[in-house]
Write a structure and sequence with these properties.
By secondary structure, the chain is an alpha/beta fold. It has a domain of about 200 residues: Rossmann fold, CATH 3.40.50. About 30% of the residues lie in helices and about 20% in strands. The protein contains eight helices and eleven strands. The protein has a nine-stranded mixed β-sheet with strand order 2-1-3-4-11-10-9-6-7. A two-stranded antiparallel sheet has the order 5-8. A hairpin with a 2-residue loop joins strand 10 and strand 11. The longest helix is centred in the first third of the chain and has 20 residues. The N and C termini lie far apart (about 60 Å).
């Protein structure tokens, strides 16, 4: 009897562990899902729209493919279309990062642009597919595109980075400084309780002061993240995350924030690896708030906590 009880206990343990670490099943980006997002999306812009902004939605990946990429495309496009806050040009063409071409945009959205290791340079990865380029030419052009991105934001452009988009130029310390951090690692997917860093902030009002749970990859960060040169929006409690790699003195880990970079504004949101997280009107409102912040229409306190 005791042996049977022990076996049942082990089966329960492994079953619970598996259910907490497996991935959610991908869902199709069909008309039904698009209509669902449209109905959940805000009916109007949060802040007054100063002009019809033009946004580059950049969705190229060369490394890990997040199945949520097309879903995130739909989310950003729907928010712009339904509220009239901005228009979207969706592309996977790195040549849009030519300095002359970037001038037509008011903001850039980096949608899960995972790059290949060990370089972790998506511009180089994309150019590496062109066999007519010499190695020197590829590196030179990749560095030029990165500089153009940095200058675009530094001179007043907006930048929204979604989930794995932070990995795009992950070895670049200047890009890390611009975004607010670089990707370090993530434990297996699990249910995460996200808490509001500042309940009265215009961006987080979407959550009405209430924490919420969703199934996601708990991202941890390095490089510029250690400086906390940003204003946090959402965080998770470190001791509630399973299978972390290293201990830390930090009690919380921030997963979404806003910051300034030169004259430009940056919004980073780690949620979410899964499209199911977008099936929440609060999350869609939060994303709209973040977009209007980087476009300059939503005025708010973005001073860093490091001050």
């Amino acid at each position: 009897m005791k042996k049977l009880f022990f076996i049942l206990l082990l089966l329960t343990f492994f079953s619970c562990s598996f259910s907490q670490n497996k991935s959610l099943e991908p869902i199709p980006v069909d008309d039904t899902w698009k209509e669902k997002i449209y109905q959940l999306a805000p009916d109007k812009a949060t802040a007054k729209v100063s002009k019809m902004h033009k946004v580059l939605l950049f969705s190229l990946h060369t490394g890990f493919k997040h199945w949520v990429i097309p879903h995130a495309d739909v989310v950003i496009q729907t928010l712009g279309q339904k509220t009239g806050a901005f228009e979207v040009v969706r592309s996977t063409d790195v040549y849009l990062f030519e300095k002359s071409t970037l001038k037509q945009f008011d903001a850039i959205v980096l949608n899960n642009n995972c790059s290949i290791g060990p370089e972790r340079d998506l511009f180089y990865d994309a150019l590496n597919m062109n066999t007519t380029f010499s190695e020197q030419d590829k590196k030179k052009k990749a560095a030029e595109f990165e500089t153009n991105l940095l200058e675009f934001v530094n001179k007043g452009g907006g930048l929204a980075v979604l989930h794995g988009g932070i990995v795009m130029q992950n070895n670049s310390l200047e890009v890390s400084k611009m975004i607010g951090g670089s990707f370090d690692y993530h434990p297996p997917q699990q249910m995460i309780e996200l808490k509001i860093a500042e309940e009265s902030h215009p961006l987080t009002k979407a959550f009405n002061g209430q924490s919420f749970s969703h199934y996601d990859e708990p991202y941890f960060f390095k490089n510029a993240y250690t400086q906390k040169d940003f204003r946090p929006m959402l965080f998770m409690e470190f001791n509630k995350i399973q299978k972390v790699r290293h201990e830390t003195n930090d009690k919380v880990s921030y997963v979404s924030w806003i910051k300034r970079y030169g004259k430009g504004k940056v919004f980073y949101a780690s949620p979410s690896h899964n499209a199911q997280s977008y099936e929440d009107a609060r999350m869609l409102q939060y994303y709209l708030n973040g977009m209007q912040y980087v476009l300059g229409d939503l005025k708010c306190d973005d001073s860093p906590i490091s001050q």
